[in-house]
Specification:
4-stranded mixed beta sheet; two-stranded parallel sheet; 15 helices; 60% helix; 4 domains; Isoleucyl-tRNA Synthetase, Domain 1
Length: 425
């Protein structure tokens, strides 16, 4: 320290918020609400947890109360979540100036994230091991999806680095989570299937997509390694050779650094267009209760030259992800009875004739509408009760208010769907 060494021991100190229990109470042994991190990692059965919290207390008269609360909060004990899920949970919750109300639902969500990464790695390995991934050279051709995910990777790397330098571990974790779950897994892996499963894909394109799958996954693992070291090390050992990376351990690999030259703005615009197209089709399918496996005919109207070019360049992507059986351009005067979505100024139309049973769908929606109106009445009655509003915890009242808004939104959506179906011939 300063006295003996002539220098301060730490120039920067990171202080996180206080970790509280799910009810917002400070954890303490006397309250019996402490959660042992080892129990979250390995799991613990209910009786062992009760004994751990209520046994050998300094204030034995509180044991019964603590045991009762423990049985209420953890009726099945605590399942095993693993070390990485616990680490990611606390990194994601480490917001500045905010205490952490810890409950199992949070860590369960991040365990699902770790499982998502495992499943993504399995898909990548299944499609790249013992195949040409371009690690030994050879010509490659990158699809718009390949160029898009590589672009988003550069942007995510910069986000993570900036947030770590600013001690915003929560924002760094959220950036990693969003990229892996929302973009790499939910979109890029699905887009890659259109390339890898098509009989018409050229070998250069296959090599390019396999190479991108592996390179992005290998970089993701290095990016997430400081937060989830065990799962990333395990997967990296199999992925690194496919990416042409040498080394005994991921721990000794350099941290990813963004390369602005690899950001392809046109590719990002193209895939954003593809996503809007696919989401529009999916929204119509969901709203009209159409079987998600049923291929749909799609009509397009008011498209620009750019829309037409993007469709031709990405036809395989929209037909595969949207489960589209055919796409046809219409003139401005043609206006068939259809459900409509917008992609910019372009209309995406799906003719309803033959796709749904009009009377059956109206009956289903009316039944659901009646149920929601009854739920609305009960919730309004509860919030109209002054005794409930005054005595219930603020968080409970706020939850009921949010529930009320959700019910009203659902009712509006159901009424809109009924109007659309009523117009069908």
């Amino acid at each position: 320290g300063l006295k003996f060494m002539g220098d301060v021991p730490f120039r920067e100190v990171y202080i996180h918020g206080l970790v509280r229990d799910a009810h917002g109470n400070k954890m303490s042994k006397s309250k019996g609400n402490v959660i042992d991190p080892i129990d979250l990692i390995d799991g613990i059965d209910l009786e062992s947890l009760v004994e751990k919290r209520a046994g050998s207390m300094m204030q034995p008269h509180l044991a019964e109360k603590i045991a009762k609360q423990t049985r209420k909060d953890f009726p099945n004990g605590i399942p095993s979540f693993g070390t990485d899920a616990l680490r990611f949970t606390f990194a994601a919750m480490a917001s500045t100036g905010r205490d952490i109300n810890f409950d199992l639902n949070r860590i369960e969500g991040y365990r699902n994230f770790c499982n998502k990464l495992w499943n993504a790695a399995r898909y990548v390995l299944m499609n790249t091991e013992e195949k040409d991934c371009g690690q030994n050279g050879g010509e490659t051709a990158l699809s718009s999806a390949d160029r898009w995910i590589l672009s988003r990777l550069q942007q995510t790397e910069q986000q993570v680095i900036d947030n770590i330098q600013n001690y915003r571990l929560d924002l760094a974790a959220q950036a990693i989570y969003s990229f892996i779950w929302d973009e790499y897994c939910d979109w890029y892996l699905e887009l890659s299937k259109a390339v890898l499963t098509s009989e018409n894909t050229a070998e250069t394109a296959l090599r390019g997509t396999r190479q991108t799958l592996v390179q992005v996954l290998e970089t993701i693992l290095r990016l997430a390694h400081p937060i989830i070291p065990f799962i990333t090390e395990e997967i990296w050992q199999r992925v690194a050779p496919l990416a042409g990376v040498e080394g005994e351990t991921i721990m000794r690999q350099p941290y990813p650094q963004p390369d602005e030259m690899r950001i392809d703005e046109p590719a990002m615009a193209e895939i954003d267009w593809v996503k809007q197209f696919v989401l529009g089709v999916r929204k119509i399918r969901s709203g009209m209760n159409i079987d998600p496996r049923k291929p749909l005919p799609v009509l397009l109207q008011n498209g620009s030259t750019t829309d037409q070019q993007r469709l031709e360049a990405n036809r395989d992507f929209v037909t595969s992800l949207g489960r589209v059986e055919s796409i046809e351009w219409l003139g401005e005067q043609e206006d068939p009875e259809s459900a409509t979505a917008l992609v910019g100024e372009m209309k995406v139309l799906i003719p309803m004739a033959g796709l749904i049973d009009k009377e059956a769908e109206q009956a289903r929606l009316n039944k659901e509408l009646d149920r929601k109106h009854n739920e609305l009445e009960r919730t309004e009655k509860k919030l109209g009760n002054a005794s409930f509003v005054d005595k219930a915890p603020a968080a409970v009242v706020e939850k009921e208010k949010n529930k009320l808004e959700d019910i009203r939104t659902t009712i509006r959506q159901l009424e809109e769907q009924l109007e659309k179906i009523a117009k069908l011939r």
